[in-house]
């Protein structure tokens, strides 16, 4: 007599099937139960989203408008700063006992240049002298770039100026305006490829209250655009020369 088992091995044919009321269209569709947020769960999720948005709104501007000096005797100023930014740069120059102040920047975009070859770097140098800084302390390092990657091009021009003039510099502090600071420092560090310690000094933009930047159109435009630009520079930006070498 053959031996049988009370619990025979189950095959794919023996697997439980979905009840008929859960199938449709000849079994092509099957209804399944799923979890969804309750009203209390939805309220908690909404509260978390609102809290995160408030926290980002409060913290994003201080995060971007960072000031973090390093020990240096050279001060670098972005040439597009307004005159009050240059005045504060002069104050920083004297207070920090720097030996040299460098201005950087590309071609001027607002109309016709006053002089042939005029640029933001030479323009800022002239304004610094006009504002009272002694000429022997001022040098300009203009870049040829006009439209794209202007900050990185300014940093590259500064690096070349140091090399051409045999300036032994291993650190400097960079002066810029408002939330442009964190991106400027990042791009200058990329240009110098780790050979230079870059400090950053953010001058407050007087066109809006940085503590309530969302109440001003200028504050919203500048803060949001700089936040997006910083993310791009951090995650995706590749210098033109590196991009060319990678495609060879």
Write the layout of secondary structure elements.
Blueprint: E1 23-24, E2 29-30, H1 39-64, E3 74-78, H2 83-95, E4 100-105, H3 120-130, E5 138-142, H4 150-164, E6 171-177, H5 181-192, E7 197-203, H6 217-235, H7 240-247
Parallel strand pairs: 3-4, 3-6, 4-5, 6-7
Antiparallel strand pairs: 1-2
Helix pairs in contact: 4-5, 5-6
Describe the structure.
- By secondary structure, the protein is α/β, with parallel strands linked by helices.
- The chain is 42% helix and 14% strand.
- The protein has a single domain (63-247), classed as 3-Layer(aba) Sandwich (Rossmann fold).
- The protein is built from seven helices and seven strands, in the order ββαβαβαβαβαβαα.
- The protein has a five-stranded parallel β-sheet with strand order 5-4-3-6-7, with helices on both faces. A two-stranded antiparallel ribbon has the order 1-2.
- Helix 4 (150-164) crosses helix 5 and helix 5 runs parallel beside helix 6.
- The longest helix has 26 residues, at 39-64.
- The chain is elongated, with a radius of gyration of 30 Å.
């Amino acid at each position: 007599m053959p031996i049988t088992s009370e619990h025979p091995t189950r095959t794919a044919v023996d697997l439980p099937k979905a009840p008929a009321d859960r199938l449709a269209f000849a079994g092509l569709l099957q209804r399944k139960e799923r979890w969804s947020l309750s009203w209390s769960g939805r309220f908690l999720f909404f509260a978390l989203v609102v809290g995160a948005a408030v926290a980002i709104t409060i913290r994003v501007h201080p995060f971007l408008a960072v000031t973090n000096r390093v020990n240096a005797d050279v001060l670098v100023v972005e040439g597009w700063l307004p005159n009050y930014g240059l005045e504060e740069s002069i104050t920083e120059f004297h207070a920090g006992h720097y030996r040299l102040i460098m201005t950087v920047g590309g071609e001027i975009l607002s109309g016709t240049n006053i002089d042939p070859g005029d640029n933001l770097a030479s323009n800022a140098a002239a304004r610094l002298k006009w504002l009272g800084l002694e000429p022997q302390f001022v040098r300009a390092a203009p870049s040829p770039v006009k439209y794209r990657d202007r900050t990185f091009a300014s940093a590259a021009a500064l690096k070349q100026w140091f090399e051409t003039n045999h300036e032994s510099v291993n650190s400097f502090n960079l002066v810029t305006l408002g939330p442009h600071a964190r991106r400027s420092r990042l791009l200058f560090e990329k240009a110098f490829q780790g050979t230079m310690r870059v400090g950053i000094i953010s001058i407050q933009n007087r066109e809006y209250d940085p503590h309530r930047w969302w109440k001003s159109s200028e504050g919203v435009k500048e803060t949001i655009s700089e936040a997006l630009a910083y993310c791009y520079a951090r995650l995706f930006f590749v210098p033109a020369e590196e991009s060319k070498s990678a495609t060879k």
